């Protein structure tokens, strides 16, 4: 019943090649009190992105406390709240006397937020080597780079098994202003009760 649902892509670029950033607005470190607003910002981002999942506490812990590291978070705020944020830590670089930036989470909600965080990352250029984060081929950050010198690498495809079609479709979230109808039938030889639930709920 498991099927391919997405891929884990690594995006990387050299710190000195980060273009398109602006320094309008303030970047500040994320505090513990920001956690609810950060989670809501991620949910807003996830609802309009492909392949993003809801996060339980253990996934947030993996982002903020990756293996043997401690990531620091920084955010950009506007009149309507958080416009973007990033969690990162410094990792060993192949370039002598430099460090790489490993981004464990990189979320942008507005153009201003994306460009301000790009400038923030570019400011590491004197000692920074590469910047790496996991996104997807249509990562919204990439469209704000003036020079498309980034690289993408597919690590693996991941799979998922939906056991409640109605809840999955209702909970996914959709872009505003879109209307449509979709009719399909569900067949499941392993869990036949899912077929009955789909008929009952008129999925």
Number of helices: 5
| Radius of gyration from the alpha-carbon trace, in angstroms | 20 Å
Strand order within the widest sheet? 2-3-4-5-6-1-7
| Structural class estimated from helices and strands | alpha+beta
What summary fits the major beta sheet?
A: 7 strands, mixed
Beta strand %: 25-35%
Uncertain regions spanning at least 5 consecutive residues: none
Q: What is the approximate shape?
A: elongated
Let me know the number of strands.
Answer: 7
SSE string? EEHHEEEHEEHH
Query: Averaged pLDDT, please?
Result: 87
- The separation of the N and C termini measures 18 Å
> Roughly what percent helix?
10-25%
Index terms:
7 strands; seven-stranded mixed sheet; 5 helices; 203 residues; alpha+beta
Kindly describe this structure.
With 203 residues, the protein is α+β, with helices and mostly antiparallel strands. Helices cover 25% and strands 31% of the residues. The protein has helices at residues 35-47, 57-64, 111-122, 165-171, 192-201, and strands at residues 3-14, 27-29, 72-78, 81-92, 99-108, 128-135, 151-160. A seven-stranded mixed β-sheet has the order 2-3-4-5-6-1-7, sandwiched between helices. The longest helix has 13 residues, at 35-47. The protein is elongated and about 60 Å long. The two termini are 18 Å apart. The model has no long low-confidence stretch (mean pLDDT 87).
């Amino acid at each position: 019943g498991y099927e391919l649902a997405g891929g884990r892509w690594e995006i990387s670029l050299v710190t000195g090649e980060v273009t398109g950033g602006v320094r309008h607005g303030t970047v500040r470190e994320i505090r513990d009190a920001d956690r609810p607003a950060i989670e809501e910002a991620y949910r807003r981002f996830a609802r309009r992105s492909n392949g993003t999942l809801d996060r339980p506490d253990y996934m947030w812990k993996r982002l903020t406390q990756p293996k043997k590291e401690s990531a620091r978070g920084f955010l950009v705020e506007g009149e309507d709240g958080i416009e973007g944020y990033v969690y990162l830590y410094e990792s060993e670089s192949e370039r002598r006397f430099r460090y790489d930036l490993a981004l464990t989470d990189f979320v942008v909600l507005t153009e201003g937020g994306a460009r301000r965080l790009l400038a923030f990352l570019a400011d590491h250029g004197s000692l920074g080597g590469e910047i790496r984060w996991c996104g997807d081929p249509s990562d919204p950050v990439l469209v704000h780079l003036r020079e498309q010198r980034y690289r993408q690498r597919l690590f693996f495809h991941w799979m998922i098994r939906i056991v409640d079609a109605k809840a999955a479709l209702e909970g996914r979230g959709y872009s505003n202003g879109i209307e449509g109808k979709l009719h399909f039938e569900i067949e499941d030889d392993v869990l036949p009760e899912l077929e009955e639930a789909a008929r009952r709920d008129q999925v």
